[in-house]
Amino acid sequence: MKRASLYRKLFLYFLTVIIVSLTTVGIVTYYASSQELDRMVERQLSQMVGNAAYHTDLYLKSYERSMVSLLTNKEVKRFIDLPAGLEGYEFYEIQKQIKEFVIDPIFIRNPEITAVYSISFNENAVYYYNEVTGSSFTPDQIKEQLAFFKTNTSAYGNLSVLNRSIIESQNNRTITLVRQIRGLTSSEPQGILAIELRSAELSELWKGIELTNTGFFFIVDERGRIVYHPQRERIGETVQPELKRSIVESGLQSFVAEENGERRLYRSQKSAYSGWHLVVSMPMAELRKPVDTIRVTSIVVGLFTLVFALWLAFRFGKSITGPIRALKEGMRETEKGNWATIPLPEQRQRDEIVELMIRYNLMVNRLSELVDKVYQAELKNHEIQMERQKAEFQSLQLQINPHFLYNTLETIVCYAFVEDSDEISEIVRALAYMLRYSVQTNLEEITVANELKHVLNFMIVLKHRAGREFEIDVAVKPELLLHKMVRLTLQPLVENVFQHAFEGGVEDYHCIRIDAGEGEGTFWVSVEDNGNGMPEDRLAELREKLEANRLVDGGDDAAGKKGGIGIVNVHRRIQMVFGEQYGLHIESRLDEGTKVTMIMPSTGRPSG
């Protein structure tokens, strides 16, 4: 395959990738789905058995409470203490008292109870029946019953749940709650007390467990006898020894056993209250049916996907090799493009890709020279641009209004000539501070407090020039005074108000307000007046000049004042320091006033 075409290589590679991918995905999906289904079945069976055990215990406990009135009844305890073979008035009187005051109320409240009886260890017995036909028992039968109950109950008075009735016709139809009880004169048990319940209502709880047609739920007592089974004829049977051992020893784990030649999955849980084992059984063939379906579906879908993917690989290979051949010829004419060199493969194969790489490398030497020249030119242009921007910045910083200085100096001369006054000292100090503050070049960012002090000195000079005082409302919060801002940006905005907003002269109703604040990652300082305002066309023109992001050279223009720093230069200066996304925002209404807001980053506040 030394001269193998790119198309054949692509097709073989695609075929390998597709087969490996489909096989891997199919196997992983099958096993993952199988395991997840197994876990889901385990959870469902565990939940079924757990719910059945909980409701069964809850149901039996409700009837155990019916025994409390019997356990604490004095007549019942007296009966337990009667001597052996006692018959007569006292025996029948106690029997009557128990029936009228204890048994009858229990039968009324709990019609599910079929019988209540007590047998003392002295072999005295009393029986009460509820809507079932009972019978008397011989002394031998009573002795046999007593022996059975003593064997199957605890001497500590714990409750036992048995699947046995003293009435032959009720076998496998009732559940017996029985316990040993004490009399009045002894601290040790002297007899047994039993209540028999119809199992039909309890069976309704278990019938609600929804399984498949071949699955079922059943209950086995501690001796291996079936207490409940959906097939009523199996109630009372004893399960196979191997199945009984698996049920007892499995704990909360599922196990597989064979029954009637069919492998089935069992999940059991022992009731801590009744001692029964509640078991769910499902055939393995039915449980594995979804997994088998997934396997068949995965194979069918995989084969279909393989055929479709091979067709796509065929089309894709054709679509790649055609353009590459055209590109190979075209790159012979474009060997001056900007591409890096790539090493050629060691093998001697000369397919379309190798040809493309050879033609590509012919361009690299020329491209490296061009890139170096372009980079050096761009670097030089960048340095020139930085120098120009620095010069613009420093030039802007050093601009001062000559008319303002001339008028101020003239005012100083007049004061000095007319009278020897403290005003001269005040105005000279203010002017000296302004000049020093204006010509500093070592710091581009200062604090709000510095700018406000500069405005204060400007107002001192302006007071002497105008011949009257004018107060500015400063609403800046104290915690914002140390926030950083650009130098010589606040005073030009205040001066602009006096030159344009109050063109007719300063009146008492005129006011200027300086405020500052933070929000959404920005810090802002605003200068607001209630002067003339601007018409919409003038405001639109000024906003357009701000968006141009260029310095102005002075003159009577939208910069805001003749020969000064101006609004546009303040805007550009903020952008030079903090970036293009910051600057001035202007709001104005004709005859209502103007508000100019400087927007800067909130990170300008100094730490600590």
TrEMBL record:
<protein>
    <submittedName>
        <fullName>Sensor histidine kinase</fullName>
        <ecNumber>2.7.13.3</ecNumber>
    </submittedName>
</protein>
<keyword id="KW-1003">Cell membrane</keyword>
<keyword id="KW-0418">Kinase</keyword>
<feature type="coiled-coil region">
    <location>
        <begin position="372"/>
        <end position="399"/>
    </location>
</feature>
<keyword id="KW-0597">Phosphoprotein</keyword>
<feature type="transmembrane region" description="Helical">
    <location>
        <begin position="294"/>
        <end position="314"/>
    </location>
</feature>
<feature type="transmembrane region" description="Helical">
    <location>
        <begin position="12"/>
        <end position="32"/>
    </location>
</feature>
<dbReference type="InterPro" id="IPR036890">
    <property type="entry name" value="HATPase_C_sf"/>
</dbReference>
<keyword id="KW-0812">Transmembrane</keyword>
<dbReference type="Pfam" id="PF02518">
    <property type="entry name" value="HATPase_c"/>
</dbReference>
<keyword id="KW-0808">Transferase</keyword>
<dbReference type="Pfam" id="PF02743">
    <property type="entry name" value="dCache_1"/>
</dbReference>
<dbReference type="InterPro" id="IPR003594">
    <property type="entry name" value="HATPase_dom"/>
</dbReference>
<dbReference type="GO" id="GO:0004673">
    <property type="term" value="F:protein histidine kinase activity"/>
</dbReference>
<dbReference type="Pfam" id="PF06580">
    <property type="entry name" value="His_kinase"/>
</dbReference>
<dbReference type="InterPro" id="IPR010559">
    <property type="entry name" value="Sig_transdc_His_kin_internal"/>
</dbReference>
<dbReference type="InterPro" id="IPR050640">
    <property type="entry name" value="Bact_2-comp_sensor_kinase"/>
</dbReference>
<feature type="domain" description="HAMP">
    <location>
        <begin position="318"/>
        <end position="372"/>
    </location>
</feature>
<dbReference type="Pfam" id="PF00672">
    <property type="entry name" value="HAMP"/>
</dbReference>
<dbReference type="InterPro" id="IPR003660">
    <property type="entry name" value="HAMP_dom"/>
</dbReference>
<dbReference type="InterPro" id="IPR033479">
    <property type="entry name" value="dCache_1"/>
</dbReference>
<keyword id="KW-0472">Membrane</keyword>
<keyword id="KW-0175">Coiled coil</keyword>
<keyword id="KW-1133">Transmembrane helix</keyword>
